[in-house]
Amino acid sequence: MPVFTRFRQSSQPDIPGDESGTEREERAEVVTAEVGAPAPGSRLAHLRAWRTRHPRAARALRLTTTALAAALVLGALLLPNTLPAVEPDRFARIPAEAVAGAVVTLVLPRRPRLVAAVLYGLGLTALTTVNLLDMGFNEYLGRGFNAALDWDLLPDAQAYVEDTLGGGVATAAAVGAVVLVLLVAAVMVAATIRLSDVLARHRPRATKGALLAGTAWVTCSALGLTLFGGPIASERGAGALRVHAQRTVESLRDEAAFVQESKADTFGNTPPGQLLPDLRGKDVIFTFIESYGRSAVEDPIMAPGVDRTLDTSTEALAKAGFHARSGWLTSATYGGSSWLGHSTTMSGLWIDNQRRYRTVTAGDHLTLTKAFQKTGAWDTVGVMPGVQKGWPEEKWYGLDKLYDAFDLGYKGPKFSWSTMPDQYALEAFQRRVHGKKRDKPLMSFVILTSSHQPWAPIPKTVGWDELGDGSVFDAIQKSGKKAADIITDTTKSRQEYGRSIQYSVTSLTQWLERYGTDETVLVFLGDHQPIARVSGDRASRDVPVSIVAKDREVLDKVADWNWTEGLKPDRDAPVWKMSAFRDRFLTAFGSTPHPSGG
């Protein structure tokens, strides 16, 4: 019985060099049928019959499958973690991990070898996943993925896609991401098993190849040889996983240290009467303009229009009796996560990740807005058209009343992510809060959203008396550009981003001209730069910040800040960390430090 005879031969122990590669491959085929010949009509029987009838095609298929498996493994090991770096020359390297994997495969018996191949494939899946996440985070947030902190951002990303492109697209994207990871895992494991089998069947030649590759790697590494501007001897895969592991460990250590840091507060025990005495009687408004970053003021594509708007607005405010000073703050976030910028500015702590945000908002660290509430001399309100669900941070910010997306009476259309145009939100703020008579002055915390990505469609300024319930924006929204046409086009995104900043700045300054009084003090700033592919490669994290008032004594209090006159800060205007603003502001307006905690 030929099959039985061949099986008996194949059951002999492996002896390197005792048979040719072809004989070993034929023996391996029989081993797969150890329990007997395939049943007639089965898939395996059809496959063997096809291979017998078409030996050349079968051989070509085997070679192609092996080549694809090798390409997948090498590609995963050499894959960069940024989109601009994905160039063909980046794959002209000798990965140390491939050499080590081949050596391990050659020395292990069959079953341990299979386990090692599966684990190796899963490791490549993890490596590919973190590299793809790094690409996305670098493209949008200007930094790599942090496994200890960033999983919390994924639901926010899904919510953003849902608000921007619709629930169906968001669901499809989430399902697609899961399917992609599972598919990568299946393909990588299949590839590593295939390669381990090939190496085992051709052990003598594979051993020589691994020895040559290892020698070449060590030589290139020792001599520092490069090709296309990079080292030939690569350990990119292991290095990437090592960086992520170190980043995770450092983040966990940082969190423990931040818990203690957040308990210390320079003004934590300052009596109410010693907080902000030089602003008593003033209506103070802190306003954040979404994604208003330094690139809007200096980038050659976006800056011309934005700078004209700032210059025009400065002149218009001057005619209305207002004066302005402007500088730069370095934001704690980039491209998104606006709440990190808001909380950093108001708390005086560097809050650059979600874990820190949760830690500080769960405590009682004094925010700048809460300092106004603590004095008892101001009513405090928040106007946040972007908030569409419960927001417990309201108490931490010290707000007596919060007006969210459902409290402003808007009946018009959404503009992509933004629930309402900034002009309407400001007019609703005037009607419901700022324009009403009260016993105390008002401290307001206003978050404007029209310049939120994807910057399509963008509202247009209408007559202030025409705003009504917002229905006037129906036609403007319908005739605007589509988010799907802008979001993937870098040039269009940059152009529309610049226009959105012009709209937001114009809305805010026109509101101030129209409704500002001798007692109004407006502080407005950006929360962060726009996403990296809009702000540009290696762009700073700086955002403009301005103080506007009619009362010159207010601006005299900050004269030693050396900020630029007007709404547009000079390139060389002072740059502070965003976390420095709270203490500088409290000090400038007469607050006395009384530390707590620490």
UniProtKB/TrEMBL annotation:
Q: Which keywords annotate this record?
A: Membrane, Transmembrane, Transmembrane helix
Where, if anywhere, are coiled coils annotated? none
Annotated region described as Disordered, given as residue ranges: 1-25
Q: Does the keyword Transmembrane apply?
A: yes
User: Organism's domain of life?
Assistant: Bacteria
User: Which SUPFAM superfamilies does this chain map to?
Assistant: Alkaline phosphatase-like (SSF53649)
Residue stretches spanning the membrane: 60-79, 91-108, 115-133, 169-191, 211-233
The protein in question is named: CDP-alcohol phosphatidyltransferase
